[in-house]
Design a protein that fits this description.
The protein has 126 residues and is α+β, with helices and mostly antiparallel strands. 29% of the residues lie in helices and 24% in strands. The structure holds tetrahydrodeoxyuridine. Tetrahydrodeoxyuridine is lined by residues 19, 22, 24, 26, 42, 44, 51, 53-55, 83, 85-86, 89.
Length: 126
């Protein structure tokens, strides 16, 4: 699947974001090796710390459906620039797509692509 299509799915997923505390809506779409796609949004909580990022929502949905190998993840948000995945999400992504791409889109239609490896050098693994 093309990056642009995956970004469109991420953008759509951001519409479901539950972000009453930050007002910052994020959507993510993960492309699995078998061609399937799982999307996710951020889900906040009154306790703040119990909130979940869009990326992890998408990854956890995919893994819970039996998918464990991802090729890339696309991320879109309601913010003005690109939204980079947080440190926890980078580590979670590393588990399932260490060779994968992180595709970022902004509201002006610009696209940036990084290797996850670039965003998480010297990653921890067991
Ligand atoms: N957030 C994500 O969902 N993904 C990111 O990559 C960065 C941050 C969410 C968490 C929180 O709900 C809101 O954005 C503000 O931090």
């Amino acid at each position: 699947m093309e990056n642009i299509e995956l970004l469109k799915l991420a953008e759509k997923a951001a519409q479901n974001a539950y972000a009453p505390y930050s007002g910052f809506k994020v959507g993510a779409a993960v492309l699995c090796r078998d061609g399937s796609v799982y999307t996710g949004c951020n889900i906040e909580n009154a306790s703040y710390g119990a909130s979940n990022c869009a990326e992890r929502t998408a990854v956890f949905k995919a893994v819970s459906e039996g998918k464990k190998e991802f090729l890339k993840i696309a991320i879109m948000s309601s913010g003005r620039g690109f939204t980079f995945p947080c440190g926890i999400c980078r580590q979670v992504l590393w588990e399932f797509m260490p060779q994968g791409d992180v595709v970022l889109g902004d509201v002006n239609g610009r696209i940036k692509v990084f290797k996850l490896k670039e965003l998480l050098p010297e990653a921890f693994s067991l």
